[in-house]
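Priority: medium. Attachment 1 of 2:
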């Protein structure tokens, strides 16, 4: 039989109690049960906390979508507001004054009155417009008998007034002479204040002949920024169409504001022919801008080079043609209102002749774009074709999208602490000896 030993220390206390093997097993099992019970309780607490976290995450997810809708609306409204402010307060051009430019018994036009204008966002004022305004290219190219010449009048930051013209023998009509200004670059740091035309009686030499001696001279004032002076005051009745099997375009009812004044609506034209039989050779591009005419009662087209009459268009691609059309629109006098444009690109062996080649001819790609209405864009370069606007954008109403007051879910409970139970002892027989 195995021997069991009882240990007693010097104070008479028992320090080692003999235990049976089964007693040690049950003691260990009790420790396991205690730990298991605590882990079950902790697991319940952890499940409650995890459920609360899941509820909170789902609510935050939904709130995120709600907030994005609200932020998107606010961002869109802010863009419209910025466009509104830009359209009424930042465009370059004439913004006030009372000035006149008249012919006289003199080679120069006569300027009088005051003017307020903006260049590069900075406002300038002169209470006395420059008195003598000489036509460009004085003493050089003569406008031949019965032809018309046209000049753009610009003013710079110092109040110096100059003119710009194509310096040619003129055009057969006043409308063509004014259209030809689309091919004339405008000097940097200047704004247009008017255009004038001269109808030559027996040949007119700028700077040498008295303007009043000619048959007719007309002045077209620009008394506000061009983007708002020359635009549509209502959307086109129908979009421009360059139909298959046709060499004409269909234009809808047009509502123009020319040179700062609304005009009567212009009737639709389902078979409008381009003005000139311009050409586009193989693997090149060209464009035409559709405008209201000088009288404001019909339509006229002009090629992207800005030269009236038949010309060969040689833009390298559609993007180049569009750049040329945008530049053309910014240079044209405000008596014309851009309505739409057409771009043609040829490929392979195709060539294109306006007025006769079909828009959908083999290897001819045609793009038609209407001037947008109600889409003034402050980020557009210069007076780009698609950024004109007769009326400023409407200031947006109060934000209608709902927002959120924040999560309604309660804050998740704290995660339970580590189990407090003692670790279970390893099974041992050292106290009980070797079983008999």
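Attachment 2 of 2:
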């Amino acid at each position: 039989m195995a021997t069991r030993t009882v240990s007693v220390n010097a104070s008479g206390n028992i320090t080692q109690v003999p235990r049976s093997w089964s007693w040690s097993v049950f003691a260990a099992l009790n420790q396991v049960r205690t730990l298991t019970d605590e882990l079950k309780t902790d697991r319940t607490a952890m499940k409650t906390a995890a459920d609360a976290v899941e509820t909170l995450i789902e609510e935050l997810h939904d709130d995120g979508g709600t907030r994005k809708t609200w932020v998107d609306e606010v961002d869109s409204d802010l863009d419209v507001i910025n466009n509104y402010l830009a359209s009424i307060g930042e465009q370059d051009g004439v913004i006030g004054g009372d000035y006149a430019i008249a012919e006289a018994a003199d080679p120069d036009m006569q300027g009088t009155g005051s003017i307020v204008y903006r260049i590069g966002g900075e406002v300038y004022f002169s209470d006395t417009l420059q008195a003598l305004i000489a036509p460009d290219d004085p003493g050089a190219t003569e406008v031949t008998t019965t032809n018309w010449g046209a000049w753009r009048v610009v003013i710079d930051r110092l109040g110096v007034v100059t003119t710009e013209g194509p310096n040619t023998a003129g055009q057969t009509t006043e409308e063509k002479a004014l259209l030809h200004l689309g091919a004339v670059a405008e000097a940097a740091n200047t704004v247009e204040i008017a255009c004038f035309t001269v109808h030559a009686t027996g040949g007119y030499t700028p700077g040498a002949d008295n303007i009043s001696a000619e048959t007719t001279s007309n002045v077209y004032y620009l008394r506000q920024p061009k983007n708002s002076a020359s635009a549509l005051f209502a959307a086109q009745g129908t979009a421009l169409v360059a139909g298959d099997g046709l060499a004409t375009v269909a234009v809808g009812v047009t509502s123009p504001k020319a040179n700062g004044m609304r005009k009567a609506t212009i009737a639709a034209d389902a078979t409008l022919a381009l003005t000139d039989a311009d050409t586009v050779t193989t693997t090149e591009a060209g464009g035409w801008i559709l405008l209201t005419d000088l009288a404001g009662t019909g339509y006229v087209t002009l090629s992207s080079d800005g030269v009236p009459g038949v010309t060969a268009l040689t833009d390298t691609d559609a993007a180049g043609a569009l750049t040329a059309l945008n530049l053309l629109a910014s240079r044209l006098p405000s008596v014309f209102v851009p309505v739409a444009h057409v771009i043609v690109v040829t490929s392979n062996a195709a060539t294109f002749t306006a007025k006769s080649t079909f828009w959908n001819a083999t290897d001819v790609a045609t793009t038609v774009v209407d001037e947008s209405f109600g889409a003034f864009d402050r980020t557009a370069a210069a007076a780009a074709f698609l950024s004109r606007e007769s009326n400023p954008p409407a200031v947006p109403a109060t934000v209608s999208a709902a927002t959120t007051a924040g999560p309604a879910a309660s804050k998740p409970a704290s995660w339970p602490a580590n189990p407090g139970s003692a670790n279970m002892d390893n099974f041992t027989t050292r106290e009980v000896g070797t079983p008999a």
